[in-house]
């Protein structure tokens, strides 16, 4: 007989088993074991929104095994993830296994280390029903919106579409940004930049035009700019003021889920889903050589900036040993968590700061290592002393026209010796010694024309930031929301940018016309606040659902009446390709499985073709063109245009370089940091040189 501990994943089970020993049996539920049925609404909207839960299809054997294990155990601990979703899984397990709801059988681990597991097991509690109700309310809310609204979209736009509370707002943000870009009217403005030298040095430095007669002046035309240039022609450039100061530069706080996803996108090029997948693995446990399974980071779904005293002490110990005492701050750095944040967990940090990235590199995949290094460096830097910069600002007069020159030098590098946020790209711009009253020598001066730029399209990083700033969704929802809107073809990737498809634009407009609450950021944010209030026991979940459903149901009926007999066409995307059957232009349409080429002469001509992208590469087997293709699951690969005659395919990307060994124009391919030839018998490969 033993004690049974149930977690979600086998990796987590393996790590925890190592710490608990032979008196415990640790098993995995593989996530949720019960959910609302797929084939129907599964919620009694007329009787207190009572949900009907069913066992998840395919988990029958697992459920049977869990029941057997529970029956032969002295005690069952529910150790699922420490958040709403994890609490709900524990509640479903307790229901399924017939465990008493007033029993102290719920344990949580902020980090899966010996300390974290021991601490969790020493403080069991009852299942938090408020947390469970918050998850139930979210699940039912999303089910109502999805199951009631999706059929409306099928009838009015196209079969197979789906709607969702958070995803519809996310698409709306992308659509609205695209409209701002399209309607943007650029405005002309000018700048004047000068190159000068001071009496103390022959090295040139830059100064920029600031204003006239002591007032800041904006230049809007060439005529205005030429007027200033004429005024300063042959003028004497005199330093009228020099200000010197010391500027402190503070490190960024440790990661929350949102900032981790944003920074991994900017620095590593990771999609949010990839970041969370790797973070989950680092949290649950990785086999480290000489240590066994170790959870390397704290729980990865959090919006708190709090860290434990033990973690801070471990960071200080490392900082002092690696960099010296002056890099340890004189007072602890406390980062203020934003209002409304869930503070149940610490910020994301290494569970054992002494495990540097170098020590665990050989035990991690390339992606895990990159993310761990990012998390580790961000955390250690957040606990280091500020950087200190000597700054100089000089004001220069030329015939009543003011120019300004600024510069700085690093007095003390502090945390920047280890890590800086990706936005911090300043160059170390040092001015020569400049004194008040100095007469400067002008070396060059010119006016430059500029135009105001439209707002940038969202990237994954900036969309996550916008969702967080608007209070839409929570740490656990950012990654799946973006995956959903891309997979369902409301939004598409253009490099790193996100842009709406025609489907996304017409669907958003339909939602705005008839369901403005669903795509309204403020309304969605208020629903998130209500869920938070349920979580802390301040509001009843049934009351929140009742208030929402009454308005939603009336809105849906009104929309169905207004749109009776009407259908919205998704605009086709024009191309310069010609139909090889009838000669009419081909257009790009969106179908259930993605984009495809179709004849604009439909229905008279029903010719359709796959969209194929040439790569410039040649097939190493037959010499014909290599094309970019997509698998059934939407994964990009490369294959010969002569398929099925030639069976060449690869996941590796063709590059413009040719194989110097074959010397016959054979294309090289790349993967990771290497380029190589795939021609049989060649074997040529070379490391890709990194740009400095």
Features:
17 helices; 34% helix; 692 residues; 6-stranded antiparallel beta barrel; alpha+beta
Which stretches are low in confidence, meaning pLDDT under 50 for 5 or more residues running?
Answer: none
Q: Helix segment count?
A: 17
What profile does the largest beta sheet have?
A: 6 strands, antiparallel, barrel
Helix content: 25-40%
Shape: globular
- The averaged pLDDT comes out at 91
Q: Which range does the strand content fall in?
A: 15-25%
What is the SS-derived class? alpha+beta
Widest β-sheet, arrangement of strands: 8-9-15-14-11-16
- What's the β-strand tally? 30
N-C termini distance = 62 Å
Describe the structure in your own words.
The protein is α+β, with helices and mostly antiparallel strands and 692 residues long. Helices cover 34% and strands 24% of the residues. It contains 17 helices and 30 strands. The strands form 9 sheets. The chain has a 6-stranded antiparallel beta barrel. A 4-stranded antiparallel sheet has the order 19-20-21-22, with no helix packed on it. Strands 23-24-25-26 form a 4-stranded antiparallel sheet, with no helix packed on it. A hairpin with a 5-residue loop joins strand 24 and strand 25. Helix 3 packs across helix 5 (129-156), helix 6 (165-183) packs across helix 15 and helix 9 (272-284) crosses helix 12 (366-382). The longest helix has 28 residues, at 129-156. It is globular. The relative contact order is 0.11. The model has no long low-confidence stretch (mean pLDDT 91).
């Amino acid at each position: 007989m033993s004690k049974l501990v149930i977690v979600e994943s086998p990796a987590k089970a393996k790590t925890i088993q190592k710490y608990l020993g032979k008196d415990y049996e640790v098993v995995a539920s593989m996530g949720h074991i019960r959910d609302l049925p797929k084939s129907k609404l599964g919620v009694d909207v007329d009787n207190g929104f009572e949900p009907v839960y069913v066992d998840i299809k395919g988990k029958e054997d697992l459920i049977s095994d869990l029941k057997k294990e529970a029956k032969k155990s002295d005690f069952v601990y529910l150790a699922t993830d420490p958040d709403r979703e994890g609490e709900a899984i524990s509640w479903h397990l307790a229901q399924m296994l017939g465990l008493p709801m007033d029993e102290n059988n719920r344990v949580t681990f902020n980090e899966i280390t010996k300390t974290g597991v021991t601490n969790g097991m020493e403080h069991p509690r009852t299942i938090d029903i408020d947390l469970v109700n918050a998850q139930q309310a979210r699940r039912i809310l999303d089910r109502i919106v999805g199951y009631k609204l999706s059929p409306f979209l099928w009838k009015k736009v196209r079969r197979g579409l789906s709607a969702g509370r958070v995803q519809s707002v996310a698409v709306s943000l992308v659509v609205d940004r695209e409209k701002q870009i399209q309607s943007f009217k650029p405005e002309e403005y000018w700048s004047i930049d000068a190159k000068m030298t001071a009496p103390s040095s022959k090295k040139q430095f830059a100064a920029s035009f600031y204003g006239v007669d002591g007032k800041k002046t904006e230049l809007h035309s060439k005529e205005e700019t030429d007027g200033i240039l004429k005024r300063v022609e042959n003028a004497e450039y005199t330093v009228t003021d020099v200000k010197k100061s010391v500027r402190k530069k503070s490190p960024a706080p440790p990661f929350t889920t949102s900032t981790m996803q944003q920074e991994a996108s900017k620095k590593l090029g990771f999609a949010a889903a990839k970041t969370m997948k790797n973070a989950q693995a680092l949290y649950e446990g990785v086999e480290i050589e000489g240590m066994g399974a170790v959870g390397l980071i704290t729980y990865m779904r959090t919006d708190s900036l709090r860290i434990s005293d033990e973690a801070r002490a471990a960071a200080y110990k490392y900082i002092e040993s690696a960099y010296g005492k002056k890099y340890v701050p004189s007072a602890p750095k406390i980062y203020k968590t934003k209002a409304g944040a869930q503070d149940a967990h610490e910020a994301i940090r290494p569970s054992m700061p002494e495990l540097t990235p170098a020590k665990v590199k050989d035990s991690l995949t390339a992606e895990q290592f990159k993310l761990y290094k990012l998390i580790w460096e961000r955390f250690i830097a957040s606990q280091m002393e500020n950087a200190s910069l000597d700054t100089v600002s000089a004001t220069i007069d030329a015939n009543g026209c003011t120019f300004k020159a600024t510069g700085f030098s690093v007095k003390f590098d502090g945390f920047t010796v280890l890590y800086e946020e990706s936005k911090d790209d300043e160059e170390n711009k040092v001015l020569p010694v400049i004194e008040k009253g100095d007469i400067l020598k002008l070396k060059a001066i010119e006016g430059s024309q500029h135009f105001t730029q439209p707002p940038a399209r969202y990237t994954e990083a900036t969309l996550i930031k916008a969702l967080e700033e608007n209070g839409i969704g929570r740490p656990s929802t950012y990654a799946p929301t973006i995956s959903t809107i891309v997979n369902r073809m409301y939004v598409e990737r253009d490099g790193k940018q996100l842009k709406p498809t025609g489907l996304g634009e017409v669907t958003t407009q339909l939602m705005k016309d008839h369901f403005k609450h669903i795509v309204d950021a403020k309304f969605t944010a208020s629903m998130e606040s209500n869920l938070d209030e349920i979580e802390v026991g301040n509001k009843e979940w049934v009351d929140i659902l009742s208030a929402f459903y009454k308005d939603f149901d009336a809105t849906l009926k009104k929309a169905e009446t207004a749109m009776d007999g009407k259908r919205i066409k998704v605009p086709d995307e024009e191309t310069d390709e010609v139909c090889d059957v009838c000669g009419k232009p081909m257009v790009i349409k969106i179908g259930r499985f993605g984009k495809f080429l179709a004849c604009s002469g439909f229905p008279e001509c029903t010719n359709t073709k796959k969209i194929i992208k040439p790569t410039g590469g040649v097939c190493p087997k037959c010499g014909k063109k290599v094309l970019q293709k997509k698998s059934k699951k939407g994964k990009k690969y490369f294959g010969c245009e002569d398929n099925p005659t030639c069976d060449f395919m690869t996941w590796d990307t063709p590059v413009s370089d040719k194989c110097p060994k074959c010397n016959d124009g054979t294309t090289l391919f790349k993967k990771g940091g290497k380029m190589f030839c795939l021609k049989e018998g060649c074997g040529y490969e070379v490391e890709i040189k990194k740009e400095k």
